[in-house]
Design brief:
The chain has 218 residues and is mainly alpha-helical. It contains seven helices and two strands, in the order ααββααααα.
């Protein structure tokens, strides 16, 4: 899903960069108010886990790739603002040291994976988790949040490439959404397992509790 240089029209990557910069500035402001020093290591551990998960990727179509995102995992456990900062850090490191995604496309990659994915996951988790009580409801909310976050990021990536005139929408859209519908199932299962384990470890078993690491309301 990392878009390389040369795939996006300047209007697309400049616009995406402006939106991403605004979202990140807000995230810094929000997390600064709630984040405590003792919570920083937890964000680092989450970032390392997502970094490792994202390094396993494979080609999909038109020069793009598919991989686990980790947006739902970070958003559910840490909150969407903290998740955005963690995923942005991961994307920047991958771009600088592993040439995964281009510099001009960084704003679009951040928008897709560090803004859209966490917020779609967070919104889905809150909505579905509030409708169904108990562990079954929380599990369903977690899985659906992870799956939809992957599909939303893939959709945004497809539209950016298609509107740039790089690959026709009729080609890139079914390829990206088809593969990521399958990737989303794996992401959903992994997210359910990790969220369940970490929630018990951090004592966050009740829906609506305040996140230990991000200080944001779940």
């Amino acid at each position: 899903m990392h878009i390389p240089d040369g795939f996006l029209d300047p209007k697309i990557w400049v616009g995406a960069s402006v939106v991403s910069a605004g979202a990140l500035a807000t995230a810094v402001s929000k997390t600064r108010k709630v984040l405590e020093d003792r919570q920083v290591p937890a964000l680092g551990v989450m970032g390392a886990f997502i970094f490792a998960a994202q390094m396993i990727n494979f080609p999909v179509a038109g020069g793009t790739s598919g991989h686990l995102l980790g947006g739902a995992l970070a958003a559910i456990l840490l909150g969407p603002w903290s998740a955005g900062l963690i995923l942005t850090t991961v994307l920047v490191i991958q771009m600088l040291f592993f040439y995964d995604g281009g510099l001009t496309a960084l704003g679009a990659n951040v928008l897709n994976m560090a803004v859209i994915a966490p917020w779609v996951a967070y919104g889905t988790y809150r909505l579905v988790g509030g409708l169904f009580k108990g562990n079954a409801g929380r599990t369903a909310a977690t899985f659906l949040a992870a799956w939809l976050s992957v599909m939303a990021a893939a959709l945004a990536c497809s539209l950016e490439i298609a509107f740039s005139g790089t690959v026709p929408l009729a080609v890139v859209l079914p390829a990206m959404l088809g593969w990521h519908a399958l990737i989303g199932i794996g992401e959903g299962l992994i997210t359910v397992v990790v969220v369940s384990f970490v929630s018990r470890l951090w004592g966050l078993e009740q829906f609506g509790q305040k996140s230990y690491a991000g200080g944001e309301q779940l």
